[in-house]
Amino acid sequence: MYYFALLSLIMTPQSQTLLIIGFVWPEPNSSAAGGRMLQLINEFQQQGFSITFASPAMDSDFMVDLATLNVDKKSISLNCSSFDIFVKELNPSAVLFDRFMIEEQFGWRVAENCPNAIRILDTEDLHCLRQARQKAFKANTEFTISDTLKEDVAKREIASILRCDLSLIISEFEIEVLKTTFKIDEKLLYYLPFLLETISKETFENLPPFEKRNGFIFIGNFLHEPNWNAVQYLKETIWPLLRKQLPEAELHIYGAYPSQKVMQLHQPKEGFHIKGRADDANEVVQNARIVLAPLRFGAGIKGKLIEAMQCGTPSITTTIGAESMQGNLPWNGFVTDDVNEFTNSAVQLYQDKKLWTAAQQNGIAIINQRYSKKRFENEFANQIEFLQSNLAQHRLDNFLGSLLQHHTLSSTKYMSRWIEEKNKRL
């Protein structure tokens, strides 16, 4: 799905500068986060921004070539005043922080050196929600939304949201959590899901038909704990039940960064294949008949399920997997948290062409009606323009944000300076 973003990077005359500070360099074929970043790059370029992407991360073999996107690349260091010189010279009109951890490190430096730059946070998903669900799952207790308030990471994440002028939220459910549980002013939040091309009739007709697809598939970055847990669940519980009903079926597990413990689950005799990184994720998903995604904790919008819909591949997932994705539209398969229902639904969908075709059509409708970038482009551009024109008043209205910014400058700044001086002596 992520290469659609690459193909749609159309250049317009540049008059403003956006600095993106990334937690890592974008890897669109490794994670949904990498694809999301390309979508944001495209969106800001459409608005007329020239873009510099900076990150303290090491280069990776799988990072996108930013030069091909007409994006400048800059390596930066943590706890180093060289960033102050760099950002002051760049003098960006806006700065986009890729996750709250990056805002913690660099937000105060941006505020100090470029006070008139709009500060935007891309949350990816709510980390406090994901962690609270994970803790409840591992403790075998029922999760309640108030559990998020107990997470230390929530204090950091919410403080970061308050310090920024605008936070991009990918999930409608998470918007509601922030407004109702954490009492965040909705003026600081902006719903911006995946920004996708619509699936045309021609694209749909070129997808492999039911008869040419075989097997089940799971795909997901193994550095992401919900994915690893889902693969364990498949191996230990779901796949043995499913294979009893479909003894010739195979399940192919794809994902970037598989560890040795992941590879040890490879059992071809059981039809359970650990394939590792997919060279072309679209191709392997398009050739599978069903996507299995038994996610038991997590947050945000699931890239693997969006990709399944784009590839015309029905899916079976959980309520957490499908959370906030379909709106009022029917799912492109089945959603259930019961292991027997999950297994039986997968078998039924695998064998019934009519049911499979209807599920496939549901997925196309979800993409075209809920994630078409045409729905969001103009309103988002207007929001950025409005912020630029009304930034002073916007910040006056956000007193808590100013308060947190003040204390961050008083504490984080001097801790960072101390670390920098200490490093000079080493």
UniProtKB/TrEMBL annotation:
Source organism, top-level taxon: Bacteria
A molecular-function term among this protein's GO annotations: glycosyltransferase activity
A single Gene Ontology biological process assigned to it is:
lipopolysaccharide biosynthetic process
Q: What keywords appear on the UniProt entry? A: Transferase
Database matches in SUPFAM superfamilies: UDP-Glycosyltransferase/glycogen phosphorylase (SSF53756)
Q: Does the keyword Nucleus apply?
A: no
Query: Entry's Pfam families?
Result: Glyco_trans_1_4
Name of this protein: Glycosyltransferase involved in cell wall biosynthesis
Origin species: Flavobacterium aquicola
Q: What is the lineage of its organism?
A: Bacteria, Pseudomonadati, Bacteroidota, Flavobacteriia, Flavobacteriales
